[in-house]
Structure formats: structure tokens, C-alpha cells
Design goal:
There is one protein chain. This protein is α/β, with parallel strands linked by helices. Helix content is 39%, strand content 14%. The protein contains twelve helices and twelve strands.
Length: 370
């Protein structure tokens, strides 16, 4: 049965603070000897973030995977990772809640300060709560009760009964995410896969919706609910220009400028980059100031930080790389390390990897020093 969404921290005060330039620099200096000077990189011009970040997408909606993620997140922070990424729809909201528990626990234990940790999440897909529904009918009843009947979102603003970027909907999702994670301020809030809207509406309509949502997110930045925002995509920035689902970064940034002026807080984008999905660096999918270029070049031109997702393609690149790839990426003991070295050799701030096992965490971190 799908429950009415409840928060894990409804009776607990939200953790005050956010990642800061001073705090993340302190974190980088503390781990420089252990991980190397290059383990931390800039994000949004001022923050210093670990080259490897913890993702929380995969897994079952159960207590066992909650425990695995909790242990991995705590170990990751203890070992120098300071970027934790989630989304409200991941694992029926469980991933956000376990990230929040882990972050609050390590801060309470004195391992890090709130100012040193970059907490990221996304909104766009209607999230289940705790468990998946048992039938399509149960899901439809959940949508009607939780979202349509109370006016959080109108049915016409939901694509395929699952996705919306309507400002009121995302404002509601942001509130839930802050409570799920138990933090006053989310450091990076992403609009999740806005290209999903292009299954039903025209690109110009999608940009209009995005502009309205960015205006809401600018107001949430002013209120301190988030520090910065952006878009987390799957196909949008990798798709060829002129094809269905394509997103033009320059247009997205222009929409943010319309919403927030020259000092807008749209500062970070996320997209898959890995050995099997190298479009961001190899294909000219973007156009900036009349010139076509690969996505990473466009992001640099527009002053946008890039976070790589699916760095190991959901573990499919962790083993079995072809011999020629191994030869091209020498000096590592495992294929996972080789695959990560490809991503982190690019101008990205962080490469995200879903890690529920401390053994896998340590294997991946071995590519970056002790």
C-alpha cells in the first residue's frame, strides 16, 4: 500500500547551515595529504568538492538497503567524500532519508561540520513513500489523494502520470526533501530530467515552464531553503541538436537569467558521463554564441559547473573492460578505477557513483590515493 508521504524528521528540528567556501576549503585541506591535492575541485566558483561523490539511485525500497547506504555514506564522509547526491523519488524517498540520517550522525559525532558537506537532491518525478504500490489503481488513487485533490499539482501539468516541473509541485517537493533530509538548506537542488516534458509539449513551452520554476527556485534561494539550483538530466544534454528531447544549455541559462537576473543561482548541471556515454566531451550537442561545441565546452563558456552521473554506468563498467581500454588507462588495479579515471580526467567537479558497499567504496577511492 502506498502511504501518504510522511517525513522522517517531522518532529526533529532541521539542521542549520549549508556548505560554504571556508568550510569546504577546510575539508579539502584536511584530506589533501590522504587523497592528494587534486582530490577536491571547484563547484559554483567557491565550494571545494570531492572528485568522487556518493550516489543513491539504485537499490530496493527496504530496510536492508537503507542500512547499506547508511553505512556507506558514513564511511564515505569519514574517508573524505563531501558530496552526497539523491532525489526524492529514489527508493520511495528512502534514499533522501538515509542520506539525511547519515549526514546528521557524522556531524553530531564531530567527523565533519555542516559547512563542509554538500547535500544535493532533485525534484520532478512524483515520489512514492516507503514502498511501491501493488497496482496501477492504487497508484492512481494515491495521485488523486495526495497531489490532485489538494491542488499541489493539476493533472494537466503531469506527464505520463509521473513527472512535473510546475512551480507549485516543485515547491512542495522541495519542502518534503528538506524534511526528509533534515536540513534547513539543500546545497544543490536539481530540476530532475526536464526533458521528460518534451514527450508531451513543445520546447518553447518547456522553457516557459522552466522559467517559471526557476523564478520559484530563486525565491527559495532568497529564503535559504536552497543555496543554488540547476538541472539533472539523462538524455537532454547528450541528445543531438534538433532531435527529440534535446536541451540547449544556453537556453536553460537564459531562462535562469530571465528569472533571476545576472546573479541567478542556476549554477550546476548533472548528466551521465562515462566510457560508454562520452557524448558530453565528444559530440557537439550544444550551441553557444553561434558556435557548436561539446557539452563540457558549453558549460565552461557559460560558467556552469558539471557533475557527472552514472560514472560506472550502474556497475556495468566496473568489470570486463576491453583490453585496449585497460591499456589506454594504465596504473590502476581494477576496471572500476580505470573507468573512474576517464571521468575524473575531464573538467567535471564531481563524478557520482552509487555505493552501498564499503568494499566498493574503498576500491573506488583507491584511485585517488590511500
Amino acid at each position: 500500500m502506498v502511504k501518504t508521504p510522511a517525513t522522517a524528521t517531522a518532529t526533529t528540528p532541521l539542521l542549520v547551515g549549508r556548505a560554504t567556501a571556508k568550510g569546504t576549503m577546510r575539508h579539502a585541506e584536511r584530506f589533501a595529504k590522504r587523497r592528494g591535492e587534486g582530490f577536491h575541485r571547484p563547484l559554483d566558483r567557491t565550494l571545494r568538492v570531492s572528485t568522487l561523490g556518493l550516489g543513491t539511485y539504485l537499490g530496493e525500497c527496504d530496510d536492508a538497503d537503507d542500512s547499506r547506504y547508511d553505512a556507506a555514506a558514513r564511511a564515505a564522509i569519514e574517508r573524505g567524500i563531501n558530496v552526497l547526491d539523491s532525489a526524492i523519488n529514489y527508493r520511495c524517498q528512502r534514499s533522501e532519508r538515509v542520506v539525511g540520517r547519515a549526514v546528521r550522525a557524522v556531524i553530531a559525532g564531530g567527523l565533519v561540520a555542516r559547512e563542509e558537506v554538500v547535500v544535493c537532491t532533485k525534484g520532478g518525478y512524483i515520489p512514492l513513500d516507503t514502498n511501491a504500490p501493488t497496482s496501477r489503481e492504487e497508484y492512481r488513487a494515491f495521485l488523486e489523494r495526495e497531489y490532485f485533490a489538494n491542488g499541489i499539482v493539476a493533472p494537466e501539468d503531469v506527464i505520463a502520470d509521473a513527472h512535473s516541473i510546475a512551480p507549485g509541485f516543485l515547491a512542495d517537493q522541495l519542502r518534503r526533501s528538506r524534511e526528509n533530509m533534515g536540513v534547513e538548506t539543500i546545497d544543490v537542488y536539481y530540476v530532475h530530467n526536464p526533458e521528460q516534458q518534451l514527450d508531451a509539449i513543445k520546447p518553447s513551452q518547456m522553457l516557459d515552464r522552466l522559467r517559471e520554476t526557476f523564478a520559484m527556485l530563486e525565491s527559495r534561494c532568497d529564503a535559504g531553503d536552497i543555496a543554488r539550483y540547476g538541472c539533472a538530466t539523462w538524455n537532454g544534454f547528450r541528445a543531438a541538436r534538433g532531435t527529440r528531447g534535446h536541451l540547449e544549455l544556453a537556453e536553460v541559462v537564459a531562462a535562469a537569467h530571465d528569472a533571476g537576473g545576472s546573479d541567478h543561482r542556476c549554477r550546476v548541471v548533472q548528466l551521465p558521463i562515462n566510457l560508454a556515454m562520452p557524448e558530453a566531451v565528444r559530440l557537439s550537442t550544444q550551441r553557444v554564441r553561434g558556435r557548436e561545441m561539446p557539452f563540457l565546452h558549453a558549460a565552461a563558456e557559460l560558467g556552469i559547473s558539471v557533475v557527472a552521473s552514472a560514472s560506472l554506468l550502474q556497475a556495468r563498467l566496473a568489470t570486463g573492460l576491453p583490453p585496449q581500454v585497460r591499456e589506454a588507462l594504465p596504473g590502476f588495479s581494477t576496471d572500476a578505477q580505470r573507468a573512474l579515471s576517464f571521468v575524473t580526467g575531464l573538467p567535471v567537479s564531481t563524478a557520482l557513483v552509487g555505493m552501498r558497499s564499503i568494499a566498493h567504496l574503498d576500491e573506488n577511492l583507491a584511485a585517488f590515493g590511500e
